[in-house]
What we know:
The chain is of the alpha/beta class.
Amino acid sequence: MSLSELSKAYTPTDVEPLWYQRWIDAGCFHADEKSSAPAFSIVMPPPNVTGVLTLGHVLNNTLQDILARRARQTGHEVLWLPGTDHAGIATQTVVERQLRKEEKKTRHDLGRTAFLEKVWEWKKKHGGIILEQLQRLGCSCDWKRERFTMDEAYSKKVQETFIDLHQKGMIYRGKRMVNWCPVSRTALSDEEVIPKKQKGILYHYKLEIIEQPGTWLEIATTRPETIMADVALAVNPNDPRYAPLIGKHVHRPLGPLAEIPVIGDEAVEMTFGTGILKVTPAHDKVDYEIGLRHQLPIIDVMNPDGTLNEFAGEEFAGLDRFEARMKAGERLRELGLLVKEEPYENNVGFSERADVPIEPRLSEQWFLRYPKTKEARAAVQQHLVRFFPDRWEKVYDHWLEHIQDWCISRQLWWGHQIPAWHSADRSEIKVQLESPGEGWIQDPDVLDTWFSSWLWAHETMDEVTRKKFYPTSVLVTGPDIIFFWVARMIMAGLEYTYALPFRDVYFTGIIRDKQGRKMSKSLGNSPNPLDLIATYGADGLRFGMMRIAPTGQDIRFDEQQIVEGRNFANKVWNAARFREMQGTCSPHPNLAEHELPDIAITLLSQFETMHGALKKAYAEYRFQEIAGLLYDFFWGDYCDWFIEAAKPTLAASQQFKLQVEVEESEKQKERFALLSTMDVVLAGFLHLLHPLMPHITEELWERLGFKEKSGFAERADFLLYAQPPQEKLLAHLSPEKIESAKNSTLALYSAIHAARNLRSECKINAKQAVDFLITPKDEITSWSPDQLEIFSALARGKNVTISHEAPPKESASVITDLGTITIPLAGLIDPVAEKNRLTIEIKNVEAELLKVRTKLNNPAFVEKVPAAILQEHREREVRWQERLESLQAMLGKLYSVLN
RNA sequence: GCGCGGUUAGCUCAGCGGUAGAGCACUACACUGACACUGUAGGGGUCGGCAGUUCGAACCUGCCAUCGCGCACCA
C-alpha cells in the first residue's frame, strides 16, 4: 500500500493564500454582466477606510461570502461588490491627530486644500488595509468593481442627489437646535447621539421674587453653567403653587446682571423636581421651544469647542463647560443661594464618535425631509423586503413612524462638500454643481457620510451592471445600523430607482466577549482576526464563527470555538487522507453499477437527508444550522460510523488483492462499492462544505482527483463552479430496500454502542478483545456475516458467535433491537458488580415503563391523542416490558451464581 | 415609562406541543495503519419563578424575577 501524499495534519497557512491567488487569476470572482445565468448580488456594507478587520467584519463578511459562493454553486452569476466608506469624522480625526503629532499643526494651519491632500495621501496608504484583510479571509468579492464613497463618479452622484432633493423641496437650510459635538466641532444627526447614564449632581438653588421680597423659588438643575443663558423661569400654569407668580421677575444669579420673568408653560411638569424650570433657549431643545412660544431672547454663552464665551460674563468666559459647571455651583454657594447638591443619575447624550456629551446648540444647518417614508414602511410591512430575523421589522417601523428631519450638514472638510453657493454678501444661495461665477463661495460644510452611503446599493454600479444585478439579492449587516443605513437605503432606492434595493436583509448578531461586553478598541478585548487566521486558518475561523452565530442573537466569542473549526478542518483532511490511502478516487462513480452494502446505502441516505436539510437552512439563512448539519454528518455519520464500519472490508480485500489478482472476489466487489460510495459522498460533501471552508475544500477536491482537468485557467477548473451533488443518489433502489438497509444498519450501530457500553461497564480494558455471544431477538432477525464482521471490529470482539441457547450463568448481557448480546467469560466478570448494574438498569426501565403506562392508563389520553402517537406509546410500552423481562431473567440467573 | 430579545448540563448554545440534545469542559480507558487538532465509554439538567390552557408544556397564555438592547424621558 502506498503512503499517503497528504500530510498527517492539515496546515492551512500553506494552502490558503495559494488558492486565493488562483481564484483571482482565473477571474472567479468577477461578475459578468453579460451572463445569461440568473443574477445574485450583494453589496458589501462598506467598512470605514480607517478601519482594521474586527471579528464583526469577519462574521459579516463570512456570511456574505457563504451566500455568494453558494449562489455560484447553484448556477447564479454572482456579484459581490466591495468597497469602503470615507467615514467623515473618523478619518478626519485620525489625520488631524497624526498631523498634530508629526508636524505639530492643525488642519487650519494647512488650509482646506492642503489638508484634504493629506487625507487622500493617508487614504492611499492605509485605506486598503481592511480589504486586503478580507482577502485573507477568502472573501470572493469582485475587486474590479471596488468602490469608495469619495470616488469621483460616486461623489458627483451624491451632490446631484442633494441638488435634486433640494429642488424637490425636501432639503432646506435652517437655524435650528442641533446636536453639537464640541470635540469634532460639528453638528450630528439624532442617530449619532448615544444616551448614556451619567452620574452627576442636581443643584438646588433659590431665587427671590423681585416684586415679592421674601418669596423664594427653588430651582433644580444639573447644568448650572447655563444659568448665565437663562432668560426666564417657567412653571406650569396649572400649578397652584406657582401660578400666581407668573409675570413676576427674579434676578439672574450668574453672568451679566438681568431681570428674568416667571412664565407659564404647559411643558413644565409639576411633579418633576421642584416644578420650576430654568429656561435656556440657546442650550436646550425643550427650552428653545418654550422660548419660541414666549418670544424670549436667546443668549448663547458657549463657543463651538464647549468653552464659555463673553456672554457668560468675565468670570466664566474661556472656561470649559465642565469647569464652568463646578464654578457656577461654587458661586451659587458663595451667594448663599445654593440650597443643596444631591447626587443624581440622568441620561446624557454622547457623541458616538468622540464619546463626549453633546451640546444642544442653535445653528444653521441643512436638513432633509426624508423621501418615500410611507412606501419604505409599507415595503417592510408587506414583506417586499424581508428581514431576518423578522423582529427587526418592528424596530424599523417604529423609527419610520416617528421619523424626524435629518441634519445632513457637517462642519468638516473631509467629505462631499455641499453643492450650494453663497453670494459674496451672503444674501443669496444657489444650489448647483458648479460655481455660479465670480464672487460666489461654496458652502464650507460637507454632507453626513450616511448621506452618501444611502446610495450605495445602486450608485456603486454602472448602468450595465445595474441592469443585470440591481436590485440586489440580500444585504448582510448589523442591526445597529438599521436606521443609519438600511432604512435610508430603502428610501433612496425607492426615490431614485423606483425599486427596493434588496430582497432580503439578514441582520447579524453583535460579537461580545465571554463576559458579554461589546468588543471595543478601548477595552482591548477584541482578538485580532489575522492572528486567529495565522493560528487556525481562515477556514477554521470561518467555520468556528458559523457554529457560534445563532440567528439574530448576540454572540459570545470564545476562541475555543475557533479551535473546533480548525479541528474540523483537520478531520476533513484526514478523512480525505484515509480515502487516498485506499487508492485513486473516481470522479464520477456510478453507484447503480454496484451492489451497495447496507452501510453504504445508509450513508448515502444520510447524506441526502443532510443535503435536504441544508437547502432548507440556506433558504432561511440559518447559518449555525448549516454548519451544524455539515459537522454532524461528517464527523458522526461519515467518520465515526461509516469509515469505521467499512474498515474491515477495506482491509480484508486489500490483503486479498495481494494474493489473487485475477478474479474479483465478493470482498473485492464490496470494496469497490464502498470506495465509490466514499467518492460520491466526499465529492458531494466537499461541495456543500465549500462555501464555509473554501480553501481546504478546493485543495482536497484537487488532491483527491475530483477535478477533471489540470490547470486553473478558468472558472470551470474550480470546485467553486463545479456541478452540485445529485439530489437523489439512491434513485436506482426501491424505498423499501433503502428503508430496510437503514434500519438494519442503525440497529447494528446501536447494538455496537450497547456492546461497547457493556464492555466498559464490566471494566474490560479497551484494548482487550473479548468473546461475544449473540442471541438474535427471534428467528426472523438474523445476523449477516457483514454485520458480524462490523460488530466484531467495532466492539473489539474475539469470537463472536450466534447462539440460540441460554447464555452461561456467569456472563453479562445487554438487550438490543437485534437481540441479546452477552459477554460470557467467567473470569472477566464480577458477578456482584454485574448484579448492581442490572439492578440499576431494571430500576430505570421500571421508571420508563411506569411513565408510559401512566399515560396509557389515562382514559383522556387514549381518547384524545392522535392515533400515531398512541401507537407509538403502545410500542414503547411493549419494548420496555420485553426489556424488563429479559433483565429480570438475567438477574435471576446471576443470583443462582452468587448463591 | 413603552417595545424587543435572552434566561435549558460547569461553559457556549440547539430544540419551540408528544420518551430533555450537541460541542467544549470533566471522569475512566486506549498513542490498533486517516486523524491525540484523535477514538471509546461515562457522570451531569425539577429547561428562571408562579399560575393557567391541554390527555400531555422547555415549547402556548398571563403575571413576576433577572440580564441585555432599542425608543422615549433627559429641570
